[in-house]
Amino acid sequence: MTKKIAVLPGDGIGPEIVAEALKVLDCLVRDFGLQVETEIALIGGAAYDALGTPFPAATLALCRAADAVLLGAVGGPRWESLPYEVRPERGLLGLRAELELFANLRPAILYPPLAAASSLKPERVAGLDLIIVRELTGGLYFGQPRGRRLTPSGEREGYNTLVYRESEIRRIAEVAFQTARKRRKRLCSVDKANVLECSELWREVVSEVGRDYPDVALSHLYVDNAAMQLVRAPTQFDVVVTDNMFGDILSDCAAMLTGSIGMLPSASLDQRGKGLYEPIHGSAPDIAGQGIANPIATVLSLAMLLRYSCDDAATAERVERAVLAALDAGYRTADIHSEGTRKVSTGEMGDAIVAALRAFNP
Ligand code: NAD
After folding, report:
1. Could you tell me the distance, in angstroms and rounded to a whole number, from the CA of residue 153 to the centre of ligand 1?
2. What is the mean pLDDT of residues 134-161?
3. Is 283 annotated for ligand binding?
4. Are domains 1-102+270-362 and 105-263 of this chain identical in fold?
5. DSSP code string of 249-310
6. Average model confidence (pLDDT) for the chain?
7. How far is the C-alpha of 100 from the C-alpha of 97, rounded, in Å?
8. What percent of the chain has pLDDT over 70?
9. Any catalytic annotation for residue 67?
10. pTM of the full structure
């Protein structure tokens, strides 16, 4: 059955990197008979400029009707002075919440040709292959009450609420245990249970869910220690599960271990496997429009889309192998370029991946 993909390029480098993922998709449709159709819609600053809202109703309707959503990135300095409710990021947060995309899967894999681009010594990151499962629709980023106010003495005060219900913790823990079960069967839950009651409950519920997964080895780390371990000995991790804010920070930290934030894809899934797929990086306004952004995170997000929302692991692997082949052949965008490799533009990297895909065609 033909799958429908909503494509939201967004802002900054978003349209540039999404164009390369679409080149790859086009090749899969034309040369490999993949049955998908795409429709493009506005989100973020681009939607605000065109329609006065970062999250148009038509975009939500398209995403609801689609089997999966492929997104570039949103945001940029042009929209930073807008009121909070119409900032580009509200479009993305709104989409995640409306589609109930509570499980964010962020793999961090070190591709051997990029060992030199990692921020750590090659021997510390050799073999790195971990996945961070981040809770995405609860916690501090959504908790109420939130806001700014004046104290009785007239001082400005900002406040947010960290809150998790048992059911929210349970469903993300289930996703994490199931993910671990398909991998090396090790799950590390990250919290701050020594300080936060919310984390205490997190640890309790994750441990309870763990009783149904005796084949998965569960461990717990406080977030400060987890951050330290990620840069000390990152290959000890297989699957890491954590809350919204800790996951936001730890996954960027893991990103640097792989060489560039431009390499890391993500999937945000609902309870039925429908998903939003996007690179973990932002709209990179500092390099937008220059044709130098790395499109690999977006191409690998497309691979995740094929795996999780189209249930097509074979085509997903084909895309991942094509990315590796392009890297093996020495193609590098500026962010991962090193001596002895060939520096290419965003478009040339997309072309190299497509050429590698075609080379596999039987
Ligand atoms: P960023 O991820 O956009 O950029 C951080 C650094 O990484 C920059 O130096 C950038 O040039 C580089 N970089 C990012 N992606 C790259 C790629 N594909 N290739 C090469 N280099 C890349 O983070 P930021 O600068 O903190 O945020 C910029 C804007 O993006 C802000 O408006 C922010 O709110 C937004 N943002 C959006 C998302 C999202 O859409 N999911 C996520 C994070 C930030």
Report:
1. 39
2. 96
3. yes
4. yes
5. HHHHHHHHHTS-GGG-EEEEE-TTS-EEEEESS---TTTTTTT----HHHHHHHHHHHHHTS
6. 95
7. 5
8. 99
9. no
10. 0.88
Annotated catalytic residue, options 48, 111, 191, 192: 192
Q: Which residues line ligand 1 (CB under 6 A)?
A: 13, 17, 73-76, 89, 92, 261-262, 278, 281-287, 293-294, 297, 335
Cβ–Cβ < 8 Å for 68, 37: no
Q: Where are the domains of the chain?
A: 1-102+270-362, 105-263
Distance from the alpha carbon of residue 283 to the mean position of ligand 1, in angstroms: 5
Is 224 catalytic? The answer is yes
219 annotated as a binding-site residue: no
- The CATH number of the structural domain formed by 105-263 is 3.40.718.10
In this structure, which residue's CA is closest to atom 34 in ligand 1?
Answer: 75
Beta bridge partners of 125: none
At residue 261 the predicted structure's pLDDT band, cuts being 50, 70 and 90, is confident
Q: What distance in angstroms lies between residue 136's CA and the mean position of ligand 1's atoms?
A: 19
Residue 130 and residue 234 in contact, taking contact as beta carbons nearer than 8 Å: yes
1-102+270-362 CATH: 3.40.718.10
Verify whether residue 248 is a known catalytic residue: yes
pLDDT band per the 50, 70, 90 thresholds, residue 267:
very high
